[in-house]
Here is the input.
Amino acid sequence: MTAAEHILSKRLVASGLPASGWDFVSAGLKTRAFWSAKIQDVRHLQAAQSLLGDFLSHARDADGALTSRARLVSDLMRSARERGLYTGTGGISDPGSARRNALIVDTNAGLAAGYANFAAGASTGARLAYPCQELVRVEERRQKRDWRSRWTAAGGKLYAGRMVALKDDPVCSRVSRFGVPYGPPDYGSGMGWQDVSYEDALALGLIEDGYMPPETPLKDFNAGLEADLQFTGEDDPQWLYLKDAFGDQVRREAGKIRWQADIIADAFRARSADPQYRRALRLGAPTPKALAAAPADARLEGKGLTLQADHLQHEMDRHIGTAETHADNLPLAESDMAMIPHAWRFPDRVTRGKGDALFFDLQGADGGWYRLVVDAFDKESRFRTFYKMKAGASGLPVKG
Here is the structure.
């Protein structure tokens, strides 16, 4: 998986939780989410994720120029200001400031690139040549944190004063604020990981002559992330904290805690494995925002939204990529499907269609409008279709 693919695979998670609050979220959930502290606007997160994906894939603009870090920071600042997130304070807590958006770029790009490098170096052959990694300073800082103390507190050993460990040593994850053995270990730290060769590791005493690496650390790491998601019961402290912090953005399923946005991707993975898969997917009852946006007689109170995986597949076959033929519509990408729960929970507006149909409209980061069409029945709401319309089509505003 490339750095760009890693970024784009993450689920958008909007939350007012500060960075210190995210510290209590398990690594298994954090690594699967695209988030920024105190950002509750899903469209700004979507814009940031898309722009970072382009940046990491070395995409070019209409003039053929590569996206630069400066351009990316500027684009994110503009997105934050257009969404009304700019506070004018200009500091790290201001979503519209250069400092905050540079931190978003550097942290997310660093973690994504770090994951790609970690995965590439996880094979047996690669770890035979470079069995260890060292936490080193890659950028200078005027005020440096005491990383050696943090390293030893996390259970690491110093070798000739160097912070070196085998790639499968848990200290590589424990020293990181994000709970992962790659990328920057903290916000704005100026620290990163550097491969250590077999010869260097042998001289330092980390390995013995004839060393052979064990099972790939990537497999162990991913298994650890899955274990991290374990649901132990309704009184599980992690579950209670997550429900309080994220509400219906988290769910429990098959003994694991997962982001609610995963439900769509999970359905398609299950359907790919079993074409007869017909399990009903439930997104939960509409939020107060959705109820407030809906017509007074919409009869939505307490009615969860139900989707059938095969019905969803049928509708997506009509709207993904070149399958989209309607002149007012924009073609969907598979990643757009993750916007279904957001359109259900946080629509910009809800209007009536024909019969029992309700249109849940959410404007995307590119100005287009996602439209989730729902039938409101007596006991539940049912998915009808999901597509994306051009701004201004069918009376939709150019801006939300």
Notes: The chain has 16 helices and 15 strands. Residues 122 and 218 are 6 Å apart (CA to CA).
